[in-house]
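Quick one: Methyltransferase from Blastopirellula marina DSM 3645, structure tokens please.
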Amino acid sequence: MTNASPHDQLMQMICGYQVSQIVLTVGELGLPDLLKQGPTSVEDLAQACSANPDRLYRLLRAAASLGVFTETEPRVFAATPLSEILQSDHPTSLQPLTLMMGSEHYAAWGRLRRAVQSNENEFEQEFGLPFFDYLSQHPESAAIFDAAMTSIHGRETAAILEAYDFSQFGLIADVGGGNGSKLIALLTKHPQVRGMLVDLPHVVERAAPNFVAAGVNERMTLIGGDFFVEVPSGADAYMMRHIIHDWDDEKSTLILKNCRAAMQPGQKLLLVEYVIPSGDEPFFGKLLDLTMMLIPGGKERTEAEYRDLVAGCGFQLQRVIRTDQPISILESTAI
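--- reply ---
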């Protein structure tokens, strides 16, 4: 795209939604899984996914032009490295993220102008509930969300564990830890460390079997609660990954003050977040910031904004640790 003219660059931006909807439809129809066994005719694929053969061919042809599939002979398609990542059983499958981004998220993004011109939460305006309340009442969407977060966070987790020495702590609380994938990886790497998962009761209930399957359940404490009300004490360090970015400053302050109330002076608070750089350089967090605005109502922040935020809650930001992924670890000390 960098070699394209300004006109062509803008055309690609304008038509970007077409690409995301092609990928979504490919995932919804299960085409990546259907092509795992080898090149397959459009007619056989259409029968397998209950599609109109001619219209399906047009979809596949468009997807192949993007590299998602390849047409090996007339009306016969095969998998590519891109489509393999959309297979449901791929170790780092992006199928759940595709389904999530193309459904509720896509609808909320259609309200971007309204969001910029108001102070309303556009997801709530569209679906009638705040995002996390919506998930609690829609188990299928919640399962897709969990799987999507795992696919995103998998690479991040390895980077976090490489960048920071968690072995210095005996018990680590993961506040808002979701399905527990981060704690599972951490406890697997550091067998002497114990973990505490803190999240809403229905989230903790969904996560419990994951710790059993990973063989670390005996080193785990699972606590269902609400971090807007209270954070349990007793851990040596408190960690939150992509939690504070979900909330505005007022609600983030409440969460952080509840963490501080549970901690002793000198204990560590570890926030794993995108830290927005200055300037015009491309950075994924700048786009994710708009998702936070539209869906949960939060925001991505700069280092200075994080420094001020934690300072108002009884912490001092000590350092920002970069990883080999776009995320950073903000290490603060309770004062």
